Request: fold
Amino acid sequence: MAMHYVLNGLQRCQKVIYIAPTKALAIYFVRWVRKRLNNAEFEDALKLIRIVYPAFREGLRQAEYTNPEVKFNTVTEGLSWLPDLIVVDEAHYIFGDHGSERASFIKQTFLESVQFPAVMHLLLSDNSQHEGRDLHIPGDNVNVVLNEVVRSSKRIADAAHAYELERSLRSVCHHCSQGPKLHCRLFETGKAAEEKVLEMYAHETLSAIAHIKRNFKGLALDNRVAILVPNEKFRSSFKRSLQLCLQDLLKDTSESNTRIAKLLSEKKIELIDAVDAVSRPDYGDPSDEIERIILSSIDGFAGLERSFVVAVDLDSRISKDEENYIEGISVGENAGVARCNIYRALTRAHFWVAILNREVEGGYLEFLAEWKERSQEESDFHHAEDEEGLSAKISNMAINNIIRSINIPFSRTELRPAGISGN
Reply:
């Protein structure tokens, strides 16, 4: 809705500054506008658009489009180039990021523009994607709450409820498409070295991709699957582990890995980042022999979405303050990185999500492990009757939502690869 508002402004020759937390989202915005205008209209629109993204201190940029490549050239106009509209996309990254270079520069630009009444400001934000509870946005703003989820299946929307901050403003699914059951794999790592843990994550991730290929036969996965990890450091290490694991798996002739290897060998898998993903055509040609899978940090994927998401190592121990919030008590600005990362990962997906995580004592996903232990004889969460003794850290509402939405494999995973279905 917001982007269509921008599009209408461009068609009325309004000047627009678009502020994004990542280069990938800035590219996505330009390509989105390109799809909706003819050649002449788009050329005129580019003259009316200025982009701001990291490194923010370089200031305003103008987009240059040579299909399919988008380049950004720095311009020196500053706010002497007075816009009609300033759009801050994923505003929680900026106005909730206190003290950083990103926050300081954007806030300064924003505050300078507020003094011009003719400039309209449009801030797009989901407070639940912010680590804290309150966003400090300057100026006299009118809040418009949109709570209908359009892009995700009902199961994904239900699962995300457990990690929302504003339960009084709980989102609802606009449509009635349930979608397939989501998957969650929690496994023990014991005292395994970090290299071994990465190897385990790699096996689980490849099993998740094989699961998609097995259950959605004939669907080209090129640029449709996003693997989301906690940060860039983890991404760098995990990429190497994933590539090595794939090589080993394709060479492995053991019976336990044959089916997965066969699925993964159908096409060559190439790992790309978020910038590469948005710079390509939306989806690949089914006849293409390469399937490009996105591997990105959760921050690097801000504002983007894909059909399938595999969330890796996003859980962490809940602090005392966070525990109080989950019991229904506001804790101000310290709501936790893990909660918002899990929420972000869930809400990046249209259709299916797999959550892969080592077991974390006192973590957000701990109650799933406890339920698994208590349900060895059960085959379906929908018929489980005993809900007593589950983690006191998770509200009953969260339990009901996630249990209804996520299909947990019941077998405990040890220090060995395991298929994601849990059969």
Observations:
- DSSP finds 14 helices and 15 strands in the chain.
- The first strand starts at residue 16 and ends at 19.
- Confidence is low (pLDDT under 50) at residues 324-335, 374-423.
- The two ends are 42 Å apart (CA to CA).
